[in-house]
Amino acid sequence: MNQVEIAKHLDLSDRQLRDVLKRLGLDHKSDSLEAIRLAYIRDLREKAAGRTPTETRHRLDEAKTREALASAQMKELDLYKEHKLILDLEQVREAMEQWVTVAKSEYENSVEKIIALIEDQQGVSIDREPISGIIDATCRVIGDYRIKSE
Q1: CB 36 within 8 A of CB 9
Q2: Alpha carbon distance 15, 64 (integer Å)
Q3: Taking the model in full, what pTM does it have?
Q4: CA angle, 92 as apex, 91 and 94 as ends, to 5°?
Q5: Which end of the chain is more exposed for a tag (fewer CB within 10 A), N or C?
Q6: Residue 69 burial by Cβ neighbours in a 10 Å radius (0-12, 13-18, 19+)
Q7: Helix ranges restricted to H, the chain
Q8: What is the C-alpha to C-alpha distance for residues 23 and 38, in angstroms, rounded to an integer?
Q9: Dihedral of CA 61/65/66/68: which sign?
Q10: Where are the domains of the chain?
Q11: How far is it, in rounded angstroms, from Cα 50 to Cα 138?
């Protein structure tokens, strides 16, 4: 049987038959009509049962996998938050702002205590004006620290 007759028998166009034969690894010259027909029927059954991987099926499976992974990651994140194993960015920002306030105050107090100690031990008076500029610059650096979002 020639290719036109096989295509007519399977209710396919010549082009469709060439594609089917190529996909199934068959040759109309060497394989019998019955072998081609059986292979074609089995291929149709596989496709109908959803067992043959198609591009659409592959994309759908990938999308479902991504969705499942995202869902699992969100559940894991919620679990971590619930058990306080992680903090959200706002909590970290708030803690850092509180730390900055305390750090600046402690730094200023420590410098003042050191100056007072030197004055008492040495019996001198220290001009705080030049030191004040250094303290202010240091406190600005501490206060200007920002958490960068990534």
Answers
A1: no
A2: 34
A3: 0.43
A4: 65
A5: C
A6: exposed
A7: 3-9, 14-24, 33-49, 55-82, 89-122, 128-143
A8: 14
A9: positive
A10: 3-49, 53-86, 89-143
A11: 69
- Which tokens belong to 148? 């960068």
If you ran DSSP here, which 8-state letter would residue 130 be given?
Answer: H
Residue 79 in tokens = 């679990």
Q: Which two tokens stand for residue 23?
A: 């996909």
Q: How many residues does the chain have?
A: 150
CB contact at 8 A, 40 and 10: yes
The residue behind tokens 């594609």 is: 19
Which amino acid is present at 33? Answer: L
Here the tokens at position 83 are 């058990």
